[in-house]
Amino acid sequence: MNKRINIVHYEGIGNVRYVYNPLARNITIRIKPDGEIRVTIPRNGSQRKAENFLISKKKWISRKLYDLEGSEINRQNLLEGESINVRGKKIVITRPGGKGTVEDAIWKILLKEAKAWIPGRVEQLAALHGFEYGGIKVRKMITRWGSCSAGNKITLNSWLVLLPDHLADYVILHELVHTLHRNHGKKFWESLDRHTGGKSLQLRKELHGRRIMNLPVDKDAD
Fold first, then answer.
1. In a designed cystine with 164, which of 62, 120, 127, 173 is the match (CB 3.0 to 4.6 A)?
2. Which pLDDT band holds residue 222 (cuts at 50, 70, 90)?
3. Own/partner long-range contacts of 98-107 (Cβ < 8 Å, ≥24 apart)
4. Highest mean pLDDT pick, 60-69, 91-100, 130-139
5. What's the CATH number of domain 98-208, 3.30.450.20, 2.160.10.10, 3.30.2010.10, 3.40.50.970?
6. d(CA 211, CA 206)
7. What residue spans in the chain does CATH classification 3.30.2010.10 cover?
8. What is the reported pLDDT for 94?
9. pTM (2 decimals)?
């Protein structure tokens, strides 16, 4: 049986392995336990159709990858030398000089990746939705996803890089809406609902099911 393989990288997903299988009947997506994404293309299929199918399932893929990454990170016996998957990139856990704990090393990885991604994403969403903010800070936070302080300065948890993109965006928009409405009153929720396409309640409920380093998180982002 002749199988052709093509690997393509997608931002926020990582590498996707396209496999042409003449015996397959439909385009299928499989996510392996190690996070590898494999798309099978049947004899009469094309990579364009397969990519369109992949993009249509991006939210589902993000959730599945998060479940894998979250369970992986929250394992109590995660060891130095093993790797974690952050936004489609496998990163080996190391403790420079053998100092600190594995948990410290994980937070260091997340902080580096978050500082490279979050500020730009905040800028994009602020421009798209017409918000202005006074600055952005990314740091380790144990029980909160983010906050917005006086002067509209936004602080976001580096753990956001492990959330599916749609939930990370929800947290960012939550804080951007706080630049206009400080509390969680009616006007705040109405505004957040508009900026999330009427899905704020759905996204809020989904976010409540997430944990940070296997610890519970405050009910709201701040």
1. 62
2. low
3. 102/78, 103/213, 105/80, 106/73, 106/78, 106/213, 107/140, 107/158
4. 130-139
5. 3.30.2010.10
6. 11
7. 98-208
8. 92
9. 0.71
